[in-house]
Design brief:
Elements lengths: L10 E4 L3 H12 L4 E4 L3 H12 L4 E3 L3 H6 L6 E4 L5 H10 L8 E4 L5 H13 L3 E8 L1 H7 L2 E5 L2 H14 L18 H31 L3 H11 L7 H10 L22 H12 L4 H14 L1 H10 L11 H34 L5 H6 L11 H11 L10 H24 L4 H13 L6 H12 L3 E2 L8 E2 L18
Parallel strand pairs: 1-2, 1-4, 2-3, 4-5, 5-6
Antiparallel strand pairs: 6-7, 8-9
Helix pairs in contact: 1-6, 8-11, 8-12, 8-14, 9-10, 11-12, 12-18, 14-17, 14-18
Length: 488
């Protein structure tokens, strides 16, 4: 419904791809009048003719027309492709705005870009919010998880709109809240996507173990995932995995079996892994998930390797139900580690960038609407709300008990996978992290000795205060000269 010229819109939205269109309709459903603009005018016309219907939508064919139809202070949401497209739109939009107006970037922008844009626009008096949106097309239409960062007072002004359209958690809380300054919202969305990579890889590994280890049919695997979806693994990704396994095409073939095993990626998982390396936070499950996608993309090379590289030729000859019970526990424990690592990265980023970001409150926004929504996010939220200064999710009593209870099956699964020659990089990395994290004294003393031996890099001693570095003359001729100490 293209309303009359006297009507003012509550918010403007630029970019009418599917996500943008669905957010507009979601807003309209909640009584919000939206002015819309798309660079290609025919897209706007088609949206108005085919989807807008009786929605509270005002079509603008030019940017200045869009801005002119907005209530003050103006609020404009960008739903355009991340990167240069955002800067291009801002270059056209900002000169049309006035001091105090608010711009929301709802795309998958990289958080350093959001930090830069927020600082640049602040100098011009424009308030900029980086807003992560998760949930895909369905979430955008009926309730996504929304992760905003930027000036708190700007968020407070748009909060009524965002809270109205956001998904609602099981306890009724809207899955949106101010997460912190400048790039905090897009950082949280990036970590969400990284965890999504890890979650999907772990499920894929469980699928391959059932398929190649147990020899289960698609129908058999569908039944397993459907059963798992009724317990602690209850999640959107487990739910759709069961549905995928049971779906056939018009010729009666399982669609999954016809899909090439080469996974795509849009970069957010890689951004998460790179950021963790830069910040010195171990993020091993997500690292391996990203690497697994890269390896999957080398389809032709793997085909050549299959002809010359041998693996074991073993078959499972034990109890199938015991195998599946172990696999269930391995998947659950590995999932806990993946989330623990991602939340630790959020905690570190909050300190590094001086954000008012709380890992537990970020997880609370993922309880509904988003791709990684699951039952156990309620448990994560409870853990952090019970102990605000929780160092690591694995130290929360609920999750410590869970991984302790699951670890026997976890270990048997990883060992079984190695014996069968089935790659489980994410599950194995999760178990290795768990064992490293729970070890009070590991082997890094040897690494320090090696570094000091060949490079006089110095080391700390167990009988001296932390931070006091010394050098040992290993070869008897090194004298007292040492290398400078620095973080690289």
């Amino acid at each position: 419904m293209d309303v009359g010229p006297e009507t003012r819109a509550d918010i403007g939205l630029i970019g009418l791809a599917v996500m943008g269109q669905n957010l507009v309709l979601n807003m309209s459903d909640h009584g919000v009048t939206v002015a819309v603009y798309n660079r290609t005018t025919s897209v706007t016309d088609e949206f108005m003719d085919q989807r807008a219907g009786d929605a509270n939508v005002i079509a603008a064919r030019e940017l200045d027309e869009l801005v002119g139809r907005l209530e003050r202070p103006r609020k404009v949401m960008l739903m355009v492709q991340a990167g240069r497209a955002v800067d291009a739109v801002l270059g056209q939009l900002v000169p049309l705005l006035d001091e105090g107006d608010i711009v929301l970037d709802g795309g998958n922008s990289h958080y350093p870009d959001t930090r830069r844009r927020e600082a640049e626009l602040k100098e011009q008096g424009i308030r900029f919010l980086g807003v992560g949106v998760s949930g895909g097309e369905e979430g955008a239409r009926h309730g996504p998880s929304i992760m905003p960062g930027g000036p708190k007072e700007a968020y407070d002004e748009v909060a009524p709109i965002l809270e109205a359209i956001a998904a609602k958690a099981p306890d009724g809380e809207p899955c949106v809240a101010w997460l912190g300054e400048d790039g905090a919202g897009h950082f949280v969305k990036m970590v969400h996507n990284g965890i999504e990579y890890g979650d999907m890889q772990l499920i894929a590994e469980s699928y391959q173990l059932m398929k190649d280890g147990l020899g289960l049919t698609n129908e058999g695997m569908q039944a397993v995932y459907a059963r798992w979806d009724e317990g602690v693994l209850d999640s959107y990704l487990i739910e759709i995995t069961a549905e995928i396994l049971g779906t056939k095409d018009d010729e009666g073939r399982y669609v999954l079996d016809m899909i090439l095993d080469a996974a795509g990626q849009k970069g957010t998982g890689r951004w998460t892994a790179i950021t963790a390396l830069e910040q010195g936070v171990p993020l091993t499950v997500i690292d391996e998930a990203v690497a697994a996608r890269s390896l999957s993309a080398a389809k032709e090379e793997r085909g050549r390797a299959e002809k010359v590289l041998n693996g074991p030729e073993l078959e499972h000859d034990g109890d199938d139900e015991a195998f599946l019970d172990d696999l269930h526990d391995a998947l659950y424990a590995s999932k806990i580690v993946a989330y623990a690592q991602g939340l630790a990265l959020l905690r570190d980023a909050a300190e590094a960038y001086e954000w008012s970001l709380e890992p537990g409150e970020s997880a609370a926004l993922w309880r509904a609407g988003c791709i990684i929504r699951s039952r156990f996010l309620d448990d994560i939220t409870s853990a952090f709300r019970s102990e605000r200064e929780l160092e690591n999710l694995l130290l929360a009593p609920f999750f410590a008990d869970a991984v302790n209870a699951a670890q026997d099956g976890w270990r048997r699964t990883v060992a079984r996978a190695a014996t069968f020659g089935v790659a489980t990089p994410a599950m194995s990395a999760a178990l290795a992290f768990y064992d490293g994290y729970r070890t009070g004294r590991g082997p890094a003393n040897l690494i320090q000795a090696q570094r000091d031996y060949f490079g006089a890099h110095t080391f700390e001693r167990i009988d001296l205060p932390r931070g006091e570095n010394v050098h040992f003359d290993w070869i008897g001729s090194g004298g007292g000269v040492t290398s400078g100490s620095y973080e690289a």
